[in-house]
Amino acid sequence: MLATKLKGQITPERKLVVDIPAGVAPGAVEVILLQDTPVKTTRRQTRGKSGHPAFGLWAKRPDLTDAAAFAVQLRQMIEQQGDRRG
Prior knowledge:
Elements: E1 8-10, E2 16-18, H1 67-85
Antiparallel strand pairs: 1-2
C-alpha cells in the first residue's frame, strides 16, 4: 500500500477537491480525512489576586481602614506562633 499526503479543500457543495500528483497511478483509493478544527479559546483561570476566594474578604469591614497593614499584622502573629511551636 502506498501512502501519499495530499492537501485539498471541501467546497460548499460538500465535494472534496485535491490535486493528484502525476506519480500516483489510477485505481481505487481509501481516503482518511483530517480536518483542522478551529481552536476554542478557553478562559484561563487566573492565579491573580481577584481569582482567589479570599479576595475582598475584608472589603466591607468598617473597623479595618488599612487592610494591608492588618494583613501584615496577621502574618507577623502567625510567624511568631510558628516560632513558639518549634
